[in-house]
Amino acid sequence: MNVNGKELAVETDGEGPAVLMIHGLGGTSNVYQVQADALAARFQVIRVDSAGAGRSPLADDISIDGHAEDLAATLDTLGVTSAAVVAHSMGTLVARALAARHPDRVSSLALLGAVAVPTEAVRQAQRDRATVLRTHGTAAVAPGVVANALSATTRQGKPEVAAFVRELVMRQNPEGYARNCEALAGATDPGPIDPALPLLLITGEDDKVGPPQVSRSLADAHGSATVAILPGVGHWTALEAAADVTAHLLKFL
């Protein structure tokens, strides 16, 4: 689909109220396959591979705000007035930016493995990762993603999830992945989440990237959010705890 002058891979399934699903850094829309299959029985599920990620080709000026504007334009192209938004990892910053910039387009927010605005140390780590990707390719970063972003419980008990995450990372365009790392490095605070916006926060107890305290802080600032902390789960929430995440989303939506 041509959106904002970019070619983006967009999938739609089902009929009903719209649900927009946003993947995180190193991911694609396929991280939500289990949830999308379940939701499509009652909702119009919209999944987008962000510019430079997955099946969407490279684009100039990749940024958090740019991704948010691409998603607003995707909704326009599909004729969708507003959508419930489900987002993971870096995608939670994109979702918050979308809600801040286009509040009338977002009817509720479900944030999985929500991440904070990066500290300077995290910004530098992402810039360093971009350099590694450009120099050595995705094979140089995939083992670290598997080791650091999945819980030990998942790596030991669900090796197929570890294999899938490795494949997700390995199949990324190295330059696209690098530019998205730089987008995260340049992320700014999207501002508070509107207290009137229904908010669900799901994260893993063993999430090192989006630790539970980030979700708890967002919930405290919001005032009436629902928070679920999943034991034995790391950062790839929708994959590591597919059934639990699906159940929480169905109840919330």
What name does the CATH topology carry? Answer: Rossmann fold
> Number of helix segments?
11
Percent range of helical residues: 40-55%
Oligomer state of the chains in this structure:
single chain
Please give the order of strands in the largest beta sheet.
Answer: 3-5-4-6-7-8-9
What does this structure look like?
With 253 residues, the protein is α/β, with parallel strands linked by helices. It has one domain (2-118, 189-252): Rossmann fold (3-Layer(aba) Sandwich). It is built from 11 helices and 9 strands. It has helices at 33-39, 64-78, 90-101, 120-136, 142-149, 152-157, 159-170, 174-185, 212-222, 237-240, 242-252; strands spanning 2-3, 6-7, 10-13, 18-22, 44-48, 83-88, 106-112, 199-204, 226-230. The strands form 2 sheets. It has a 7-stranded mixed β-sheet with strand order 3-5-4-6-7-8-9, sandwiched between helices. It has a two-stranded antiparallel sheet with strand order 1-2. A hairpin with a 2-residue loop joins strand 1 (2-3) and strand 2. Helix 2 packs across helix 3. The protein is globular, with a radius of gyration of 16 Å.
Write the layout of secondary structure elements.
Elements: E1 2-3, E2 6-7, E3 10-13, E4 18-22, H1 33-39, E5 44-48, H2 64-78, E6 83-88, H3 90-101, E7 106-112, H4 120-136, H5 142-149, H6 152-157, H7 159-170, H8 174-185, E8 199-204, H9 212-222, E9 226-230, H10 237-240, H11 242-252
Parallel strand pairs: 4-5, 4-6, 6-7, 7-8, 8-9
Antiparallel strand pairs: 1-2, 3-5
Helix pairs in contact: 1-11, 2-3, 4-8, 5-7
